[in-house]
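FORM 7B: Structural annotation worksheet

SECTION A. Query
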Amino acid sequence: MIYLDNNSTTPVLPEVLEAMLPCFAETFGNPSSIHGGGRRALALVKEAREQVAALLDCQTSEVIFTSGGTEGDNLALKGMMNPGDHLIVSAIEHSAILNTCTWLEKQGCEVTRVGVNGNGQVEPDCVAAALKKNTKLISVMMANNETGVLQPVEEIGRIAAEADVWFHTDAVQAAGKIPISVGKIGCDLLSISAHKIHGPQGMGALFAKRGTPLRPQLHGGHQEKRRRPGTENVAGIAGLGKASHIAQAGLTDGSVEQLAKLRDRLEDAIESLVPDTSVNGRKAPRVPNTTNILFENVGGDALVMALDELGIAVSRGSACSAGGSDPSGVLMAMGLSGQQSRSSLRFSLGKQNTWEEIESAIAGIPDGVRRLREKSLIFWNA
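SECTION B. Predicted structure
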């Protein structure tokens, strides 16, 4: 299988698996235990915390381990908002943010959803215009999960600072693909997920700047300075740490540039070989591994299945929304019609992809699209 759905989840790298395996049979102690087994487990947690902090350019004390991006987003929003507070988010956030906003509104919070331009970017002036006296928090993602479009988080961070408002960014799809420095961004909270950077599923982290009044959403022991209690998932934490270390190295060893070349080759070839195609968000800065392509007059779900039969794994959008026939809210916000949204596919590359795989995909995709268009024409002319 040529796996081009890495924004949904990435395969665990061999080095990450190697770092995790001892935690199941050798270093299996509870990090809270003071005996040797507990101390060895605690050492692994400490090392991983340092590796995550290095990836985010923050202090180790500011890293909270979570079960993934969804928990991190929920903790950031629910842990900061109170009834009567106002929250600003973008209209293209992940469902972990948007569905949390719906819940917060039912608790008496006020939410403003800021739209995007035709390139899929939030305009900072629109964020500034949405500010109110009771605005407590701004949450805008760093990179969109469907298009890969980067958002102007540094500008939004300055707006938040000037307005004395807390700022959270969902960096799940940005981590490991672009350099991240929480100080440069100016954010108070930032979420990442291990399984988007070739780490294990069910593991993530939330950066919480020192002094941020974050309320825990779970109640229990003293773990994570009581901000996220519960016995630590040592194997998952070790995997996240190793994946973060590899991701950090990839920002300077040419890995990211290689991804960009593979992505560009794929999308340029598709636009050249397949009529009536275009890249959604092409004019905006994007993470190097993602392209979202509109195939006019082709059902997106049908094309996903057709490519799957050819051994090419892609998706129509977010895995968290897969299985539904609704158009993408992200693409609709960019001005695409419902039909165009349903006819767009996301191709997302990972560290495991090769030039040979990309060339094989390029060889198969045009024929798959042609066959579907012919079937559609026959149906409508019948």
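SECTION C. Observations
The longest strand covers residues 290-295. The longest helix spans residues 355-381.

SECTION D. Sign-off
Analyst initials: ____
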